[in-house]
Design brief:
This protein has 567 residues and is mainly beta. It has 7 helices and 33 strands. It is 8% helix and 52% strand. It comes from Paenibacillus thiaminolyticus.
């Protein structure tokens, strides 16, 4: 069973919806969506096709390292004060004695910021911090900027409140949550930066502390309408909210929402969500997906059909707005880091093991082993290629482990595409040199770029028109209509092997005009076994006919598996 991601957990806590709900696993959502960049049309289209269905997974790759150190009581006791739900590797490292106690504090503007401990090795640096603004109840706080520098002033990492949402391993990230017992906030700051030798000094500065409050806006959502419903918001940086209700298999209803902004920075901070209430009480959902791309925030929530169609159901749009701001700087000065202990469990292994998939040639290049976790890098022969599998695991001595994909910068013309998988070291697994390792790839999701037939849209108007035709060997129903001067085109197939259309385009003379993808650029249609509905929008469309084409479609192969020995 997939567990809640830190994003969905935070969202539930903020909206008063905590509980043991069954949330899909979208841990890697941030890495896929934020990796999307503005490129020329051809590259952008291929990029969208390749980012829509990368699943949140945990990949485990083990090294020839034995963890046999004894934990120090001080560091081990910290396990009771930090939430290691999403960082069990940090807990494992503390328990095995790889960390060091720092316990250095600074107070400014009534807020005390403390670096409690650190873990450094040849593959990266992790700081455990806490701060106390004097709160009695949990609030939403984010730093304006967190910066690390070397003793010589050389920048190591700088994370602002926008980058916080991006979980970029190569640039570093931080996160914190409320510690109810001690009435403070505990968190992690991680970066791949490291240093030569066994010891160094590092400068840490934290600037600005911004509070965010939740604001709610009633929505007159029509449950009988299956088309896109658009609501002007004009508040909190949000221009409008586009919502669609999609009825799926097994009595499920997917409530899809997309938000447009006049300021992309706000899109990273206000985290909008649709609240469904019955008699004023928040209803439980069976799933949620969230994502951000090009200044637009999107969300998909799953409810049961009988729940959402009950009487006295109301809808609200909830979003974050800036509240109190503390304009201070917390400069910790020099932090002395030592990685001597961690060197016993740190290594970089070069593998160069080839992997052939429907995407082409790939090579498992390196393993980066550290006390808190392990990374694996997979290099592809062409830009934007990826492992086309829903499940990516590693069998280690007969034990099946899973990991998550993190954002990797891929820059430079013609550069090969690099995928990075990050996973935490399980505290109960001893890593030894003789453990057999196999990479297990399961449930292939194939991309097909060979469909060239036009889809002819006729009698385009405000009335919905439908037509059905085969895409490959799969029947696809197209529904199209105009709304507020824009052309909406929906596609859907009853065949669950069909994973969906990635994007359409209209040909006008020698030009290709791509549709704007609504909702389903979030992964889901390529992964969820019952979802394949897509919506494209052509703003300001004029005319009553169109010759439309597709770029690529997906096909699910749950029976396909591939095993790669990593010896």
């Amino acid at each position: 069973m997939s567990k809640e991601t830190r994003v969905e957990t935070d969202l539930a806590r903020r909206l008063g919806d905590e509980g043991g709900h069954d949330y899909p696993d979208f841990e890697a959502m941030w890495t896929r969506i934020d990796a999307a960049r503005q490129e020329p049309e051809g590259e952008s289209v291929r990029r969208q096709g390749r980012t829509m269905f990368l699943g949140g997974r945990r990949l485990a790759v083990l090294s020839a390292v034995a963890l046999v150190l004894i934990a120090t009581p001080v560091l081990a006791s910290m396990s009771g004060h930090w939430d290691f739900t999403f960082r069990p590797g940090v807990k494992s490292a503390l328990n095995h004695g790889f960390g060091q106690t720092i316990d250095k504090s600074v107070t400014n503007s009534g807020v005390t910021f403390t670096v409690d401990s650190a873990m450094s090795d040849d593959n990266g640096t992790t700081l455990l911090y806490s701060f106390d603004p004097g709160d009695e109840e949990p609030r939403e706080w984010r730093f304006s900027e967190v910066e690390l520098r070397t003793a010589d002033g050389e920048p190591v990492v700088k994370v602002n409140d926008v980058q916080l949402m991006r979980m970029n391993w190569k640039k570093g990230y931080y996160s914190h949550i409320w510690d109810k017992e001690n009435k403070r906030y505990n968190g992690f700051l991680e970066t791949p930066w490291t240093f030569d030798g066994k010891e160094t000094e590092l400068q840490l500065s934290v600037r600005g502390l911004q509070e965010y409050n939740t604001k709610r806006l009633p929505l007159a959502l029509d449950l009988a309408e299956t088309g896109v419903q658009t609501f002007p918001v004009q508040d909190g940086g949000i221009e409008s909210a586009s919502i669609q209700i999609s009825r799926e298999a097994e009595g499920k209803v997917v409530l899809k929402s997309l938000y447009t902004y006049w300021d992309e920075r706000i899109a990273n901070t206000n985290l909008p969500a649709i609240l469904v209430k019955k008699d004023g009480k928040l209803m439980k959902r069976s799933g949620i997906r969230v994502g951000l791309d090009n200044g637009k925030w999107a969300e998909q929530e799953i409810y049961q059909l009988d729940d959402i169609h009950q009487q006295n159901i109301t809808f609200e749009l909830a979003y974050m707005t800036p509240g109190k701001k503390i304009d201070g700087e917390w400069n910790l000065g020099m932090l002395r880091l030592n990685k001597e202990k961690a060197l016993h469990a740190s290594a970089i292994r070069t593998l160069d093991v080839p992997v052939r998939t429907t995407e082409g040639e790939a090579v498992v290049r390196k393993l980066f082993i550290r006390p808190t976790g392990i990374r694996v890098e997979i290099e592809h022969g062409s830009p934007y290629s990826r492992l086309p599998y829903k499940g990516v695991y590693l069998s280690v001595g007969g034990r099946k482990l899973e990991g998550e994909e993190w954002l990797t910068d891929n820059t430079g013309d013609g550069s090969n595409y690099l995928q990075t998988y990050v996973f935490d070291a399980p505290p109960d697994l001893r890593l030894t040199a003789d453990l057999p390792m196999e990479l297990l790839l399961q449930y292939e999701v194939e991309e097909r770029w060979d469909y060239r037939q036009p889809i002819l849209l006729s009698n385009i108007s405000g009335e919905k028109q439908t037509l059905t035709m085969d895409v490959g060997e799969y029947p696809v129903t197209w529904t199209y209509y105009k709304q507020n001067g824009d052309l909406y085109v929906e596609s859907e197939s009853p065949d669950e092997r069909f994973g969906g259309i990635n994007q359409t385009f209209i040909r006008q003379e020698d030009r290709r005009i791509p549709g704007h993808i609504l909702f389903d650029w979030i992964p889901g249609a390529g992964l969820n076994d019952s979802l394949n509905k897509r919506v494209d929008v052509y703003p300001g469309f004029e005319g009553t006919e169109a010759e439309m084409y597709i770029f690529m479609y997906l096909v699910r192969h749950p029976e396909r598996e591939l095993t790669v020995k990593l010896q």
